[in-house]
Amino acid sequence: MKKINIACIIEDEPIHLFITKKLINMTGMVESLLIFSNGKEAYDKLKAIFLASEKLPEIILLDLNMPVWDGWQFLEEFTKIPIKTKVIIYILTSSDNPDDIKKAETYSMSKNYLIKPISLDQLKIVLSEIE
Q1: Which of 72, 56, 55, 69 is nearest to 12 (CA)?
Q2: Is position 35 within any domain?
Q3: Residues facing residue 93 across a β-bridge
Q4: 59 neighbors 130 (Cβ within 8 angstroms)
Q5: Is residue 124 part of a domain?
Q6: DSSP sequence for the chain
Q7: Which end of the chain offers a freer environment for a tag, N or C, measured as fewer CB atoms within 10 Å?
């Protein structure tokens, strides 16, 4: 099974961040993690990584409801960066609001919409889909 070099978690809630980090570590499938507490912080750092031609994460687990920039604002701006490598974004949120799910479809992310908390089995499936 392929190991992921870099994964990214964008999450402001300490308990969900702790759980997600713990589960990622338990999979043994990720070399390193980038962690951000809001969309703006994540966007600024990931854009800087891109501009420096450094390695971007292969997968981003994105919360929707955060301070400063929420997940939607992050998605709106991040998708404008002309990234050539594949970065897969999974929305990982506590929101089961049909409007959020429908909005995710506008980003072609309906299959990438996961409700928190994620289970170890779900996470293994998600990580194993990364090429």
Answers
A1: 69
A2: yes
A3: 115
A4: yes
A5: no
A6: -PPEEEEEEE---HHHHHHHHHHHHHHT-EEEEEEESSHHHHHHHHHHHHHTTPPPPSEEEE-SS-SSS-HHHHHHHHTTS---S--EEEEEES---HHHHHHHHHTT-GGGEEESSPPHHHHHHHHHT--
A7: C
In the numeric block, which tokens belong to residue 110?
A: 């309906």
User: Which residue range forms the structural domain that includes residue 112?
Assistant: 4-119
The distance in angstroms from the start CA to the end CA of the chain is 10
Residue 119: what residue type?
S
CATH at residue 75 = 3.40.50.2300
In a domain, 125, yes or no: no
Q: What is the pLDDT of residues 108-119, one digit of tens each?
A: 766 788 888 888
User: pLDDT digit string (tens) for 53-110?
Assistant: 999 999 999 999 999 999 999 999 998 999 888 898 999 988 888 888 888 888 776 6
Domain count, the chain: 1
What whole-number distance in Å separates Cα of residue 11 and Cα of residue 106?
Answer: 22
pTM, two decimals, is: 0.92
Residue 9 has pLDDT above 90, yes or no: yes
